Amino acid sequence: MNTAPPGPTLRTLSDVLRHSARQFAERPALSAAPVRLTYAELDRCVDALATRVRAVGIRPGDRVGMSVARGPLALVASAALMRAGCAYVPLDAAHPSRRLRHIVDNAGLQVVVCDESGRAAPEIAALTRLQVDGDDLVPGPFAGAAEDDTVPGPGSVAYVMYTSGSTGVPKGVEVTHANVLAMLTDALPLFGFADCEVWPLQHAHGFDVSVWEMWAAVAVGATLVAVPRAAQQDPESLAELLLRHRVTRLHIVPSVFHHLAEVVEEEAVHLPLRNVTFCGEALNYRAIQSWTRSQPGPQPAWCNVYGITETTVYNTFKRLTAEEVTRAVSATPIGTAYDHSPAVVLDEELRPVAPGCTGEILIGGRQVTPGYVDMPELTAERFLQLPGRPGRWYRTGDLAHRDEAGQLHYVGRRDDQVKIRGFRIELGEIDHALRAVPWIGDAAAVVESTARGEPALAACVVTEHAAGPRHAADDKQNEALLDRLRKELAAVLPDHMLPGRVVCLDRLPLNTNGKTDRRALAEDLSRRS
User: Any idea where the AMP-binding enzyme C-terminal domain is (predicted)?
Assistant: First the structure.
């Protein structure tokens, strides 16, 4: 079994790739039709692009935008930027202009590495562009390892990931090489990797699951199979890809797995996966049970992990038992914290709660990141010292309880932050955008449950009189109103933050503190469904 974590001599992610290029030189590293790179060839591609990065004047410590389609170029470009000592900042050209402009300005970006998909956005086009394409996936001749003594060490920032912000703007989280190496050191031994693993490279580089997807694979010498855009959006195509490449492991958001499980059962596709690891959302037990019914022979190990951007992707690990899958408990089991990323459950006064009692999760240890870009007050509020506990701790805002055996069970959010299809979303950011629409007087975003039992966004709005009737008279009028709203919101919010339903109300309910009562709104929507 290949479970060895990165050794102490590996100080950066670039070192991890260099080490694997020597240890697994001829093993396939990346498959993206028609490209197939070994680890030695991948390393040479990264060296070549890192040389181009330095040639355009980018220096160690710079933040550099990265706007490429998800897939092979995301791995090569991010690895090259880190090898040049830079921090990559994901930029999705499909996101609204205002959001892109904020990220560019807040991160102080001057240069962007982009492919054809990233050229059109004005905010990206205005930067100095280093164009990448399929030629950057063609390895040149081996020229020896080009080392650069000026490249920063483990404390340097590897990437800046922008998450949804409750103030109406996204906030950038700086994550160091040491943070990611700490995650790999603690997490890799838990999964029991075999010598030749294969898993899909499917998550966008603006979603930090991609960090685990890419660098866990590199660390253990696994083969990454790039998932084409068509397969990302079509579970039948994804199932076919998993079968064709004989994928052994799957890291996936539960709502996406639900659709895949439906296809696998309906089409009687046999996918002999060894492991399925869920992340980003509450578990969907029905999807697991559906998969189990449809797949003969040994079942994969079902695992669940928990973590957030501010504490470097994953912080806990749980292998589900057959009884837990069958019983389908309401609270999602997330297991135990990693050795060097302790988790505590505290009350509002930051005191430990008894087993079985709900409190807020705080994460400490080596995976706690430096903080937010240019937001010192928020950094001081969320990253703090705890009396009697060493180091810095991060207040996650997530609620959980610990059972008598010490296992953590996720309950929900302390505030209005939610996860939809794996994306962490602040409902306050959507509120902010809704209230900026001229014909809306007041509004609140609410999470409702679809007929499939999946979370979805709805907008509860109080319209101005000039916008027409407060209550849509029929489905056709509702659809027209929703279409109008989504078009206006698309200027400031990405697709995954657009509501799928709009409900007009005379007023929004308030709780005893005078704040919008989202729980009452959600209950009202449930009655209307």
Answer: 429-515
Distance CA 157, CA 78 (A): 12
Residue with tokens 């590199």: 218
pLDDT band at residue 200 under the 50/70/90 scheme = very high
Q: Which fold has domain 1-179?
A: Rossmann fold (3.40.50)
Q: Which of 406, 391, 234, 408 is nearest to 334 (CA)?
A: 408
CATH 3.40.50.12780 placement within the chain: 228-415
Banded model confidence at residue 341, pLDDT cuts 50, 70, 90: very high
Superfamily of domain 424-528: ANL, C-terminal domain (3.30.300.30)
Omega of the bond leading into 6 within 30 degrees of 0 (cis): no
SS3 category, 165: coil
What is the distance between the alpha carbons of residues 195 and 68, in angstroms, rounded to a whole number?
Answer: 30
pTM value is 0.86
* DSSP β-ladder status, 35-38 and 249-252: unpaired
pLDDT at 498: 94
28/10 Cα distance (integer angstroms): 22
